[in-house]
């Protein structure tokens, strides 16, 4: 049995392949996904997969489960609600702050730096965290470029939407919402397909985003290079992507659209890792909920096991529900096709304003499922959907209300989305030997007590000793990042400038540095949602 693509979307996409047969594409996807399950070899070292990480994660290809259990969570980032104190006091004003933060994109900056053996290694860091780098590296961080140090800059951003649901809002010239696009498609599938069938991916982009998409927007039109210096201060640009390679952080998948997931934690590999590590019995299952974590069993378990982000809705929920199955003596496995799915959306409170008052808006009038399976009522697997007014209507989404609030941001709709994954449950046979808790330090934020930080106790001795720089890596980016002056035109938002950072990044030898012969690998797609392994 071959493992299928998310929502079995490959059965549709692969029919349009030009370079590879649908059968070969299906086989190669299965082989790729199996690396996350049974592990793989990397430079002579075995990288463990789900079967290695837990005796309670069974091989669904060989052993069928006795039941399939949906595991649901909300699509809006719970971490942002925690930070903006929405959970204890869900006022429209606080919700609006969280929704605005959800639409604040984070830009990656890049550089290379020699490792212990003197070999160049590609580094990637959110722009607002550059100040946390060692001084010698701060001046190196900048945008990648095309071709050389004088080539066009490449802007690469990700969204702060980490519940496996991401979105983009299109507005008219008045600033009113006209279209909302939501996606749950993992980056692994799109990077895989782009490598095998770039023409197919280009065509899918045009279908999902529009005819304004150009091929060079999503595939590098020339080699992509990053700047760095060796231990002796010799500067050069090194290639990390070749002409024609896919740029998963292209503008049509970040600042101008939403085709697939961009947040580093929103990956299939991370989902599999979380499910496997959650299927272990942890000491917290025996000790019970911690009072300092609100006596919440889901928070207590994830604080102990460290398999994901404690502030999220998804990770604690998935971990708790998988753990309950194991506590009952059962084994688990993610249901084929493995994926993260939009299960449902509740538009029952959506209304539009008319001269005589508000009237209900029917879901069928505004909602389109672009990709995925919506026909299975028991296990819906939607991957991509859009909301917009019917063609020819004299109103837009910006004229609507949801939950008695004027519809101004996509996050208001994300709050009405239920996400889900599906797990097969095999009765009996679980190994219930408890594992000790990870030595992580979990602290409440001093200014937003509903928000938690997870720290390495070797770096942060106690919660009282956590410094602002320690928290900077934990909390969301509420305002625009500090970026280079004069390079803000692609963002459509006003960005602040850090004059110290600007001087460090611009008054150097980067523009005249040559392009070296070395080629460094691009950043890998994350295979875990955990901060510490």
The main β sheet shows up as: 5 strands, mixed
Distance between the termini: 31 Å
- Summed up, the helix count is 17
- Strand line-up across the major sheet: 7-6-11-12-24
What helical percentage do the residues reach?
10-25%
Return residue spans where pLDDT drops below 50 for at least 5 consecutive residues: 481-507
Explain what you see.
The protein has 533 residues and is of the alpha+beta class. The protein is 25% helix and 23% strand. It is built from 17 helices and 24 strands. α7 (187-196) packs across α8, α10 (268-278) packs parallel to α13 and α12 packs across α13. The longest helix is centred in the N-terminal third of the chain and has 17 residues, at 22-38. It is globular, with a radius of gyration of 23 Å.
Keywords:
4-stranded antiparallel beta sheet, 533 residues, 25% helix, 24 strands, 5-stranded mixed beta sheet, alpha+beta, globular
What does the secondary structure layout of this molecule look like, with pairings?
Elements lengths: L9 H4 L8 H17 L1 E3 L2 E3 L2 H4 L13 E8 L3 H6 L8 H11 L3 E9 L5 E7 L8 H4 L5 E3 L6 E2 L2 E2 L7 E6 L5 E7 L3 H10 L1 H12 L5 H4 L5 E6 L5 E7 L26 H11 L4 H5 L9 H9 L8 H14 L3 E4 L6 E5 L5 E4 L2 E4 L2 H4 E7 L7 E8 L11 E3 L2 E2 L3 H5 L2 E10 L14 E4 L7 E4 L12 H5 L26 H8 L8 E5 L14
Parallel strand pairs: 12-24
Antiparallel strand pairs: 1-2, 3-21, 4-5, 4-8, 6-7, 6-11, 9-10, 10-18, 11-12, 13-21, 14-21, 15-16, 15-19, 17-18, 19-20, 22-23
